Structures are given as structure tokens and as C-alpha cells.
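User: Fold this; C-alpha cells only.

Assistant: Input:
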Amino acid sequence: MTSRNLAIIVPVLNEVNAIHDLINHLKPYAERGNEVLFVDGGSRDGTAAAIQSAGGRVITSAAGRAKQMNAGARSTSSQYLAFLHADTRLPSNADHIMVALLSQKTLAWGRFDVKIEGQSRLLPIIAFMMNWRSRLTHIATGDQVLFMSRSLFEIVGCFPDQPLMEDIEISKQLKQCAPPYCVKHKVTTSGRRWDSRGSWKTIVLMWKLRWSYWRGESPETLAEQYR
């Protein structure tokens, strides 16, 4: 793979307890010549310092996942961009998969299927429904690791500056330009929200938020409910 074809951008906020595991996970990607950039949104627990001490590259930006991901994109130079949540892990050959797909067309994007790790027996069903819904609607969530060509990212105008549903909104714009690559290889994400707040309660909340967003309720109002 050509060096610096792919930038993996990771927004972080107060992740010091998990940051070393994440850095170790991404180390092979950096060693293969990919850009790996952490974007700290103002952590108060020493996350940025921990990244630096471990040899990772980190910048700071205003808080907010959309703001952080946009700042990361501006601070990288690679032709292709991947946006990774701090509690999500990539399959070992994810960089090769993304570059191989994105290099087929000038304007291209995609996402992975997701597996959710946690205690609830409902998590495999939840993941299956997320993957199925995404294939049907061509809408992806951030947990599925959105990846795209820089040219397409710039055409759609980056992530919208909103506190929630930024992944849904950019997917709407992206799919108007090209259908997504729906990669069957699975990324693994944390089910801590479902475990800590209850699976059924979280499912109902997520559907309520999506319905309200579709009805035109502001992301700011929905973000308060999500917290």
C-alpha cells in the first residue's frame, strides 16, 4: 500500500483509561504508513498527554465529535479518510480493504458491518439490525467507521456542525453522490451504553431520537435527551 494514502482520524474526549489500548490497536496501521491522528476535544483527564507520551500524534480542537473530525481531516494530507470512534476497533486488514475500495472511483465512500461487545444477549440482534438497516437505507452510523475519499468529503462540505446525528446527516449527503460500499468485515464496538442503561431502554431511546430527528427536531435538543 502506498504510504500515506489513508488517514485514520480518532476524536477523543476523556479517554485516558482506554487510550493505551487504542494506541496499541492502531500502531500497526501507522507502521504500514497510514496517518493516524487523534483529535482531543479538551479532555481534563490527561488524554492528550498520554497520547503524546506514547508517541501518538494528537491535535486539539473545540469539543464536539463533528468539529473534531473536521479538524482532523484538515490536519491530514492523505487521499482517503476514515473516522474511528475511540471505543471501536478495526479488523486487522481494514486499511487494505478501505484503500482497495476507495481507489476504484474518484468519489467513493463506505462503512463496515459492526459487532457489539457487551453483556446483553440482545447485542447480536441489535448489531444485525444496524447492519441490515444500513444496507437498506444507505445510511451509516459512526460506530460502523465511515470512510471516504477526501474529494467526496470536501464536496459534501465535511461533517455538519451539530452535536448529534452528524453521521446520519453526512450519510444523506454522501449517498446522493454515490452508493456506499457496505463491507461485511466487522468492526467491533463497545456495548457499554446498552449494558449500563439497559438494552430495551436504549433501543427505545435510539428509535425515538431517530424518529424525532426525521420529524425535524433540532440536534441540540436531541443531544440533551441522548446524554
